[in-house]
Design goal:
- The structure holds two protein chains of two kinds.
- Chain A is mostly beta strands.
- Chain A contains no helices and eleven strands.
- Chain A has strands at about 5, 10-15, 20-25, 30-35, 45-50, 55, 65-70, 75-80, 85-95, 105, 110-114.
- In chain A, strand 7 (about 65-70) and strand 8 (about 75-80) form a beta hairpin.
- Chain B is an all-beta fold.
- Chain B contains no helices and twelve strands.
- Chain B has strands at about 5, 10-15, 20, 25, 30-40, 45-50, 55-60, 60-65, 75, 85-95, 100-105, 105-110.
- In chain B, the strands form three sheets. In chain B, strands 2, 5, 6, 10, 11 and 12 form a six-stranded mixed sheet that branches.
- The radius of gyration of chain B is 14 Å and the shape is globular.
- Classes of the chains: A mainly beta, B mainly beta.
- The interface of A and B includes residues 103 and 105 of A.
Chain lengths: ~110, ~110
């Protein structure tokens, strides 16, 4: 069983479009995260949700909007896509709130904006 | 703010060579320290961690010791294999500080047979 899953694995789209990436975890964790990994492999947190409540919101354009329908899911919606949004986006989860240090990552979604 | 500095690659080694990847950190409070590994086409996996000074984390032949006096957490392996080819990330987590995982820039390792 996949612990943290993301769909789609690859996403190619035109500038200006709106797209969503879905994430689900079956670990029973309370906290979920979205990270962005750029072309140089630099990994930076974007958002964190704990029990459907937003905990961390880094300096991210408001074109990015996370949605957590329940604690097992954290989706990422991106409006008006730009070239600079091209990256690999990773979802992650951790056990008991944001103070739990070990995180489990999904396989990533490679977004290419043309 | 909290930060992690690790040696940047890419690094290419021959099989059975000795590996060291340097990592130093700056943090408020007392961080937990981690090494995560990203194999080609996959997400990050926790490789090892240490939660207090002088702790040694170990897994799959890799080791790292939490050195508070030098604020370091260098990763070592005595004999690398082709299957160790991956990107390695050093990271820290500080409770009572930023309370988020802060990653270094990652180092790509290629091991040739």
């Amino acid at each position: 069983d996949t612990a943290v899953s993301q769909t789609p694995k690859y996403l190619v789209t035109q500038m200006g479009n709106d797209k969503s990436i879905k994430c689900e975890q079956n670990l029973g964790h309370d906290t979920m995260y979205w990270y962005k990994q750029d072309s140089k492999k630099f990994l930076k947190i974007m958002f964190s949700y704990n029990n459907k409540e937003l905990i961390i919101n880094e300096t991210v354009p408001n074109r990015f909007s996370p949605k957590s329908p329940d604690k097992a899911h954290l989706n990422l919606h991106i409006n008006s896509l730009e070239l600079g949004d091209s990256a690999v986006y990773f979802c992650a989860s951790s056990l008991a709130g944001p103070r739990t240090d070990t995180q489990y990552f999904g396989p990533g979604t490679r977004l290419t904006v043309l | 703010g909290d930060s992690v500095t690790q040696m940047e690659g890419p690094v290419t080694l021959s099989e059975e060579a000795f590996l060291t990847i340097n990592c130093t950190y700056t943090a408020t409070g007392y961080p937990s320290l981690f090494w995560y590994v990203q194999y080609p086409g996959e997400g990050l996996q926790l490789l090892l961690k240490a939660t207090k000074a002088d702790d040694k984390g170990s897994n799959k032949g890799f080791e790292a010791t939490y050195r508070k006096e030098t604020t370091s957490f260098h990763l070592e392996k005595g004999s690398v294999q082709v299957s160790d080819s991956a990107v390695y990330f050093c990271a820290l987590f500080t409770q009572g500080g930023s309370e988020k995982l802060v990653f270094g820039k990652g180092m790509k390792l290629t091991v040739n047979p």
